[in-house]
Specification:
Layout: E1 7-10, H1 20-34, H2 42-48, H3 53-63, H4 70-84, H5 94-103, E2 108-111, H6 116-122, H7 127-130, E3 135-137, H8 152-160, E4 169-173, H9 176-184, E5 188-191, H10 195-201, E6 210-211
Parallel strand pairs: 1-2, 1-4, 2-3, 4-5, 5-6
Helix pairs in contact: 1-4, 3-4
Length: about 230
């Protein structure tokens, strides 16, 4: 029997917004500039997804032996991201589900590893939808001591949603680190991986409650949520 869900918590990058494409493009631009033809491959990218900006930057700099510090890497990528992030589009099925849950008074939260400044940049052209969320938790929130796969982001979202039982919370994630974080928070989790991540992991579901190809495939009533009309 599926879980009885009363509260939903959403990752953002690669789950709500198609920002992972921007991260890939920007990272490749840096590699084109500083390396002799190295490619930013999915086996590396998959390890970065869901991590804090500082952690991801350090991993890229070390993996590709870049001639800069992680701080310098973040500064250089931020300049390129400034123009690209605001134009990130909602992924298929996302806007429909968010509006549906809001209309039926289901409490919803965003729990993203992005800093608040990056969140504001990425959502600057889609504020109307993000204002429907009851809670927004960003990676630089003072209560977040550890990035995913630690459960801090989801536990903080749970707390600010009024402390519903973890078994009544449903997390939506695209990254393996995020799935692990949700499980570490003792919550149910819908995993919607990029096809490239799925190709790397094969049939392994990493403990997710359900694995979907797209948010369009989500059936709310399967989790005791109101059905689409």
């Amino acid at each position: 029997m599926a879980a009885y869900i009363t509260h939903c918590i959403f990752d953002m990058d690669g789950l709500l917004l198609d920002t992972e494409r921007v991260y890939t493009e920007v990272t490749q631009q840096i590699l084109d500039k500083y390396t002799n033809g190295l490619r930013f491959t999915w086996d590396v990218k998959s390890q970065l997804m869901g991590r804090s900006g500082d952690e991801a930057a350090a991993m890229v700099v070390n993996t590709y032996n870049l001639p800069m510090t992680p701080v310098e890497y973040l500064a250089e990528t931020a300049i390129i991201q400034e123009n690209l992030f605001p134009h990130a589009k909602f992924l298929p099925g996302v806007e429909k589900l968010i509006r549906h849950l809001h209309a039926h008074n289901i409490p919803i939260a965003v729990a993203t590893s992005s800093t608040r400044a990056k969140f504001e940049l990425k959502t600057s052209l889609s504020k109307e939808v993000f204002e429907l969320f009851d809670v927004i938790i960003c990676g630089d929130d003072p209560e977040i001591k550890n990035a995913k796969p630690s459960p801090d982001l989801f536990l903080t979202a749970q707390k600010r949603l009024g402390n519903p039982s973890a078994e009544n919370c449903l997390v939506f994630e695209d990254a393996v680190n995020g799935v692990c974080a949700a499980l570490n928070a003792k919550m149910n989790v819908v995993w919607i991986p990029d096809v490239n991540i799925k190709a790397l992991t094969g049939d392994h579901d990493h403990g997710a409650t359900i694995v979907l190809g797209s948010m369009e495939d989500f059936i709310p009533e399967a989790f005791a949520l109101p059905a689409y009309k």
